[in-house]
Amino acid sequence: MSPMQSQAQYVLRTVEERGIRFVQLWFTDVLGRHKAFHVTPAELEDALEEGMTFDGSAIDGFSRTRESDVLARPDLTTFQLLPWYEGGGGVARVFCDIDNIDGTPFDGCPRQQLRRVLSGAREQGYTFFVAPEIEYFYFEGLDPSQRPRPIDNGSYFDLLPDDVGSQLRRRTVLMLEEMGIGVEHAQHEDAPGQHEIDLRYTDALTMADTVMTVRYVVKELARQAGVSASFMPKPLATVQGSGMHTHASLWRDDANAFIGDGPYGLSTVATQFIAGLVRHAPEITAITNQWVNSYKRLIPGLEAPSNADWARYDTAALVRIPSVKPGRIDSTRIEFRSPDPAANPYLAFAVTLAAGLRGVTGGYDLPVEGERVASLPQSLAEAVDLMEQSSLLHETLGEHQVEWFLRNKRAEWDAYRGQVTPFELDRYLPLL
User: Fold this and answer.
1) Where do runs of H (alpha helix) occur along 18-107?
2) Residue 328 predicted with pLDDT over 90
3) DSSP string computed for 316-339
4) CATH of residue 38
């Protein structure tokens, strides 16, 4: 029996023994939004063996009408029960890769694109590990038409009484652990209603799946509690926004390739990787920060980067070098601070790796610490223009995804430009 057949038998046996009534086949569109099929046990065996055919033209960033049919093929290693459904009948999920009907990887699938970039890194001998810190807000109520009101007035590391936010954060961590997702720690963040979950290091593909799962669990448990959770990068004007600070390292031959005798214990590979991120950050920002609202966060003064630079301690730097505990040299890593938690994690990790590796293969020199190499884009429009000109992004994502992304984001920018905001009304209507 092949490993795939063995995995399929395990899934089918688990579904029967645990009384699973539905299996959700998860995938994402190019923007990183959750999509799913729901299949019953009677249909599951065929779905696992043959995949599920669907009309890709109905999914943003997938097929054009003339080439619409694609195949969702379950990755059986990602099968997992969804514990919060057990009271009303068991539900499980499995992530899917999207293939063309002939079985080749589909160019519009973000998961497949990350697989391709990771495969290119493996050909150079590297495995890419990441550990994101995911920030988000809890707001009162479920009505999206209302102005957001944080559910608490806490700040950084506050130990509040056992309020709704603390209960939700604790329940979320326990739920993730029950699903086999490692959580390093969780805390209240700096802004009222803002919380953070830091995930334990793993390979980038597993982590991208994990980020999608975390976002789903956070929102679902908040909904059950009658509040809303948001990964919007900048939902409140007067406080800091939410980031997805991503700790990253390359490993080679089961050893951390970032360990060396350079600045702060970094290897040449690590300094070149940093140099690649710093040099190419402006052109990959459209992916790591893909919404109009993302650029309300990337401004000076609120612990978010606005320039392409690096530093040891500066929390406003694009790349920071975390301290390593004594005896824990294997945890040597860099922290990439511009991504936000509303990005598509598959594409965000793909372009992060591609930019860093470009520095390694190109032998980039590390800039002077604290030196501004360039400014990050100040708007989605500027970011998209830089993306269009980037050979790195065209090579990393392919023409299919780049073409669709540019078209979608320019439409988003045009829609935003036509809005008259409360700021304009409050500031100008009485005066002009």
Assistant:
1) 41-50
2) no
3) TSSEE-----TT-GGG--EEE---
4) 3.10.20.70
